[in-house]
Amino acid sequence: FRTGDTLQIKKMEIYPIHVDHSIPGAYGFIICTSAGIIVYSGDFRMHGHLQLMTSDLIRKVREVCKTKGKIERDFSYSEGRVIALICEGTHIHRGSIESERIVKRHLRKLFKYTPFDYALVQYERLDWDRFRSYVDIAKKFNWKYIISEKDAYFYNRLNKKAIYETMRDPNIEKTENILVLSHDKGYFHWKKEIKQLFQNSEIFHRYIKVQDLKNLKEHFFLYITSLSYYNLIKKYLPPDMKGVFISSNVDPYAEEYRMHKRTISNDLLKIGVPSYRIHASAHAKPHDIIRFVDEINPENLIPIHTEHAEFFQKLFLDLKMKVVLPVPFIPIEITS
């Protein structure tokens, strides 16, 4: 499905609408039921490159409410309110003023007069905005940007299946400063496919082996996806060059991710590599959630994807809207 589609499931009409998030393909849903309209926000934010997508969901909700907000006794539709908003609240309890633009501003400041020769960077592979920000900075300052074969395969697939222009940039095949790092001889279909792409496009000079890292004399970013990948490449880092580690992980959802960052950071301190944190969240901040809820104006508000559901009750005191806290395995009954 795509934005603009209408899905029919058991006499319910469902409208999928894209929303701004760090991961491509994030959607909210407007569900027209016999009880009324239910809106599911999905994971969203309003401070990314594609923040207008979230506005598209709000706009579509208003449009649907005018035509299908309420079912009359003769089964005709009339204007009405959203009966329930199922809303994510990852950061409902705390906020900061940040955006992907601010991430790029900090990166530009760091690398304009940098004493460093290379940078190890860490973020979620699915975070396309962060990938684009780093590649843009690498191009601006004429640095190489090194990714693994698996990363190259994944990003190339997104390029080919792009539903928005922003998913075609960076283009793995056409971006000259992107290098692909090969670190083993294992045979996989996806590995063969990405290697053939570079060979057929006559860009195989951008394929390098992990052993080549020690001999690189030009500035480079090296994207590391995990602790295990870091352990694999760390012995090949050039010993006579100054390095820096930049953590840009988006909202780690498990202590394991925080531990990996600390482990890498502490290990790099032993060889004189300092650490930075440059980050923008993938989730809406309190002020944006309040604005989103006010714009949707539901009769019932159901918080999800949060450890602070009770805070919704303190934050939204409007008597015209009821905050319903979910209980595991207990259905929530919605009536018009």
UniProtKB/TrEMBL annotation:
Pfam families listed in its UniProt record: RMMBL
InterPro entries: RibonucZ/Hydroxyglut_hydro, RMMBL
All residue ranges annotated as the Zn-dependent metallo-hydrolase RNA specificity domain in the record: 278-326
Protein name: Zn-dependent metallo-hydrolase RNA specificity domain-containing protein
